[in-house]
């Protein structure tokens, strides 16, 4: 089987997994909301602790390097303002059995911390070669969730890792599951944090992967759709790698080659849809070289203590699917701001029906 044929098969499956996708690929136009672009901004001190006492005047927002007026500004406290939910996903597709067992114990340690009282309603999900399964309703009872995870049967994957194509096969499972998870999150109110516990998805990118025009367009459409959907639905993705210091630095950092968002179909590679890239682009984190699974989850959830909700009027788009990079600058140079990487203006792609 050729690489081109296998990649084509991957995206036929992905498109079939999108709910409500029409049979013919006519691309409708989706307008940006009339009230502008809304983003969540996390500000941290050098210590990593959140800074929550800034004012609108402390922020400068750039849309494609052009300053834009902030039309609304709010400091959000989830306990007082809106529900915030957490989805913890254990990836049994991309971890060998021993690493999976270690990650599972780390999740249980987190659930039992703070006397088992979780700060946010949390649900558990497990990814196997059968797909992603959410195993419980949202709960703040960490002890009960830990007990549930303890007795959860996680079947070993049936994918042949010795196969030359196992990377594409695993990527297919991961992307299909993530689309389903994103659709589920879109039905929930408030902000959602998805913590994907995994060394990452196969990048399936490089000189041996030659994409045709159709595959490039399908990947680009998926990038545009996911980027706008996750921002619109207040979903922030995090990736925590439980392999810790045993992970190859070259492998761990390779995703950084795909952090520049594609602006046209010919720019894309399958690595643009990797979990680490999606995490960074949503304003989340891709945490490497750390074997403390419980501590990594805590580090992700620091973002949810409080954040800034900012709305601005976007620049007009000159063409369909025009990418706009967002930068947030602060008057206090010792502070760092993290938010969504950008948005696609005048999107014309097949989006999942809500």
Automatic annotation (TrEMBL):
Keywords: Signal
Top-level taxon of origin: Bacteria
InterPro entries the UniProt entry points to: VWFA-rel_acidobac-type
Signal peptide: 1-23
Name of the protein in its database record: VWFA-related domain-containing protein
């Amino acid at each position: 089987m050729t690489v081109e044929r296998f990649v084509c098969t991957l995206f036929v499956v992905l498109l079939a997994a999108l709910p409500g996708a029409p049979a013919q690929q006519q691309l409708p136009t989706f307008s940006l909301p009339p009230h502008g672009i809304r983003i969540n901004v996390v500000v941290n001190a050098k210590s990593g602790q959140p800074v929550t006492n800034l004012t609108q005047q402390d922020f400068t927002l750039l849309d494609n390097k052009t300053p834009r007026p902030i039309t609304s500004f709010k400091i959000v406290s989830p306990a007082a303002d809106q529900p915030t939910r957490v989805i913890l996903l254990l990836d049994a597709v991309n971890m060998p059995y021993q690493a999976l067992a270690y990650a599972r114990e780390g999740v249980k340690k987190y659930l039992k911390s703070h006397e088992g009282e979780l700060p946010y309603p949390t649900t558990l999900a497990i990814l196997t070669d059968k797909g992603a399964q959410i195993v419980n309703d949202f709960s703040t009872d960490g002890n009960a969730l830990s007990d549930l995870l303890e007795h959860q049967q996680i079947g070993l994957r049936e994918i042949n890792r010795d196969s030359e194509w196992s990377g594409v096969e695993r990527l297919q499972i991961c992307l299909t599951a993530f689309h389903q998870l994103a659709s589920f999150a879109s039905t929930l109110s408030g902000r959602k944090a998805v913590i994907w516990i995994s060394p990452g998805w196969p990048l399936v990118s490089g000189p041996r992967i030659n994409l045709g025009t159709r595959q490039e367009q399908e990947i680009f459409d998926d990038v545009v759709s996911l980027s706008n959907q996750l921002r619109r639905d207040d979903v922030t993705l995090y990736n925590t790698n439980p392999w810790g210091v045993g992970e190859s630095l070259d492998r761990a950092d390779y995703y950084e080659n795909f952090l520049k968002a594609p602006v046209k179909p010919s720019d894309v590679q399958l690595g643009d849809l990797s979990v680490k890239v999606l995490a960074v682009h949503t304003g989340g984190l891709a945490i490497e070289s750390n074997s403390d699974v419980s501590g990594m989850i805590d580090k992700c959830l620091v973002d949810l203590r409080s954040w800034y909700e900012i709305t601005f009027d976007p620049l007009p788009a000159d063409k369909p699917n025009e990418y706009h990079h967002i930068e947030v600058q602060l008057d206090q140079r010792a502070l760092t701001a993290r938010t969504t990487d950008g948005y696609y203006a005048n999107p014309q792609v097949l989006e999942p029906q809500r």
